[in-house]
């Protein structure tokens, strides 16, 4: 298909169902062989959805950057099926070298990139002397996690990576935008590296002015600025801990503003949306994550809340009340912006719950009732997670736990999708 041609029935990129509720599904490319993508995407479209969030559970960052044709093929198929596509360019839980690539099933590795491994840039000094590309816990453990809030990390890796992704895909007609997921996922956000400490001291100097003023409001006194360290007693609400939370929120706002400004400078197309997605637990948490603020959400176009509920623990009626509350909080954090609800749709796990302790995913009618509550509270986007469930360590391909394997459930959801999109047009 021509780069500039629009698929029959497709909306303009980034617009979705502009006159009604946008409905989509998460589609991890490595959850299915490439030869099955076309039918999967056609089924998603037939089920009344207008967009997909495309990701890759293996080597998310490396694949987007280094395997351009793999993702362009997926975007071509989205275009031919009239689907808009958001690229999940960042997921805090995946972008780390800690994921056990070596333990994933052979069936998955053989279908994907054998030469790849989960990777982020290594910190410069294996002993952790530089403090740029590593994460230090409050207990002094050095882990090879990225440090999202590090200005050096952003300048030397994150922004160049995003620049390459934009160069690869921004001109594709199916592209609708870029999604950042689980930005506040612990432990990646809260860092105690040398650079974190240095950034904190700079911020404290701007806030308090002099060391004497800082000491006057703190229990712990310091003889020099070099003695001022990030506090490590989680939950100890004293001036030092309050400063630490305020400082992290300052860092998060810096990250959001710098990242959004960079993307818009490289991709000025206003129809390409910047989407921020996170779990409900991070909405108001200030310990130890810092929590979301309006200033952090402001640079983005849409804010999506992941409100997974397990019927065995949270009855559907209570989950509906929770969903309405979540959307109200999201609207307060993102005034005037698009707010969405992320619906978990595992359906009938293929192994007994008691055997592996797996979550009891909600049935379609549960999902519909709770999704309807979220929509009635003002959600304008509904995203189903996930069309096919990706594989995790210990899984055997294929995992029969998603839309793909439960056509009756998919049909019920499809009927609901058509109802909500027609009533809001």
Notes on the structure:
- The protein is α/β, with parallel strands linked by helices and 425 residues long.
- The protein has a domain at 22-120 and 154-185 and 275-423: TIM Barrel.
- It is 38% helix and 13% strand.
- The protein contains 13 helices and 10 strands.
- It starts with 21 loop residues before the first strand and ends with a helix.
- Residues 1-19, 95-134 and 347-356 have low confidence and may be disordered.
Features:
alpha/beta; eight-stranded parallel beta barrel; TIM Barrel; globular; two-stranded antiparallel ribbon; 425 residues
Name given to the CATH homologous superfamily of the domain at 22-120 and 154-185 and 275-423: Glycosidases
* Average pLDDT taken over every residue: 76
Gross morphology: globular
Based on the coordinates given, report the CATH architecture of the domain at 22-120 and 154-185 and 275-423: Alpha-Beta Barrel
Ends distance: 29 Å
Determine the number of helices (DSSP H or I, runs of at least 4 residues): 13
Q: What is the string of helix and strand elements? A: EHEHHEHEEHEHHHEHEHEHHEH
What are the segments in which pLDDT stays under 50 over at least 5 consecutive residues?
1-19, 95-134, 347-356
Q: Indicate the proportion of strand residues.
A: 5-15%
Secondary structure: elements and pairs:
Blueprint: E1 22-28, H1 37-46, E2 51-55, H2 60-66, H3 68-80, E3 84-91, H4 106-111, E4 135-136, E5 142-143, H5 151-169, E6 175-181, H6 194-208, H7 211-216, H8 239-266, E7 273-279, H9 294-297, E8 302-306, H10 316-333, E9 338-344, H11 353-356, H12 364-376, E10 381-385, H13 407-423
Parallel strand pairs: 1-2, 1-10, 2-3, 3-6, 6-7, 7-8, 8-9, 9-10
Antiparallel strand pairs: 4-5
């Amino acid at each position: 298909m021509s780069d500039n041609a629009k698929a029959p029935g497709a909306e303009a990129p980034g617009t979705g169902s502009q006159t009604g509720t946008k409905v989509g599904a998460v589609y991890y490319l490595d959850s299915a062989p490439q030869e099955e993508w076309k039918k999967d995407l056609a089924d998603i479209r037939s089920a009344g959805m207008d967009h997909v969030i495309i990701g890759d559970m293996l080597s998310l960052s490396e694949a987007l950057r280094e395997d351009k044709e793999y993702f362009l093929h997926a975007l071509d198929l989205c275009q031919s099926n009239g689907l808009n596509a958001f690229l999940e360019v960042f997921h805090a839980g995946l972008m780390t070298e800690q994921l056990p690539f070596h333990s994933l099933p052979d069936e998955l590795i053989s279908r994907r990139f054998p030469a790849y491994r989960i990777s982020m840039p290594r910190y410069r000094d294996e002993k952790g002397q530089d403090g740029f590309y590593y994460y230090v816990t409050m207990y002094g453990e050095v882990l090879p996690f990225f440090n999202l809030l590090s200005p050096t990390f952003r300048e030397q890796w994150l922004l160049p990576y995003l620049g390459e992704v934009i160069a690869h895909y921004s001109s594709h007609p199916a592209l609708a935008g870029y999604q950042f997921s689980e930005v506040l996922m612990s432990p990646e956000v809260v860092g105690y590296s040398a650079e974190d400490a240095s950034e904190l001291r700079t911020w404290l100097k701007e806030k308090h002015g002099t060391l004497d003023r800082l000491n006057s409001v703190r229990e712990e006194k310091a003889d020099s600025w070099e003695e001022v360290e990030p506090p490590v007693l989680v939950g100890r609400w004293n001036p030092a801990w309050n400063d630490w939370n305020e400082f992290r929120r300052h860092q998060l706002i810096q990250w959001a503003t710098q990242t959004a400004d960079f993307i818009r400078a490289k991709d000025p197309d206003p129809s390409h949306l910047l989407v921020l997605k996170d779990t409900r637990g991070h909405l108001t948490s200030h310990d130890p994550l810092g929590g979301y603020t309006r200033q952090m959400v402001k640079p983005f176009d849409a804010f999506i809340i992941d409100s997974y509920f397990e019927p065995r623990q949270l009855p559907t009626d209570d989950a509906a009340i929770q969903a309405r509350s979540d959307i109200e909080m999201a609207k307060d954090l993102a005034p005037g912006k698009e707010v969405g609800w992320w619906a978990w749709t595992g359906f009938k796990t293929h192994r007994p719950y008691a055997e592996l302790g797996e979550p009891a995913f909600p049935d379609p009618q549960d999902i519909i009732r709770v999704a309807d509550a979220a929509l009635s509270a003002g959600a304008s986007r509904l995203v189903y997670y996930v069309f096919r469930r990706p594989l995790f360590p210990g899984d055997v391909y294929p995992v029969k736990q998603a839309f793909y394997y439960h056509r009756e459930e998919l049909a019920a959801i499809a009927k609901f999708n058509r109802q909500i999109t027609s009533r809001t047009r």
